[in-house]
TrEMBL record:
InterPro entries: MrpF/PhaF-like (IPR007208). The lineage of its organism: Bacteria, Pseudomonadati, Pseudomonadota, Alphaproteobacteria, Hyphomicrobiales. It is a multi-pass membrane protein. It comes from the Bacteria. Belongs to the CPA3 antiporters (TC 2.A.63) subunit F family. The chain crosses the membrane at residues 6-26, 38-57, 63-87. PANTHER family: NA(+)/H(+) ANTIPORTER SUBUNIT F1 (PTHR34702), NA(+)_H(+) ANTIPORTER SUBUNIT F (PTHR34702:SF1). This is K+/H+ antiporter subunit F.
Amino acid sequence: MSQMILDWSLFASQLMLGVGMLASLYRMVRGPRAQDRILALDALYVVGLLLLVTLGIRTGSTIYFELAMLIGLLGFVGTVALAKFLMRGEVIE
């Protein structure tokens, strides 16, 4: 019984994360300003990270957790670099 509940809850969470990914992708494409696009990109990598974590729980493989950690690190650095570029016009001082 508990395995069935876990499977259904993982499926529902992956479905909702997919909808969130589509919403942030829409905002990234249609964003009126560059700040909106960067925020949508930030949300997109967080949702992708969470999707990988749920996939790792579902399959029981540790490679998905390592990929999620890598995406989290690179996504944070990319967001900081893009925000710095918008504020100052250059990334490296």
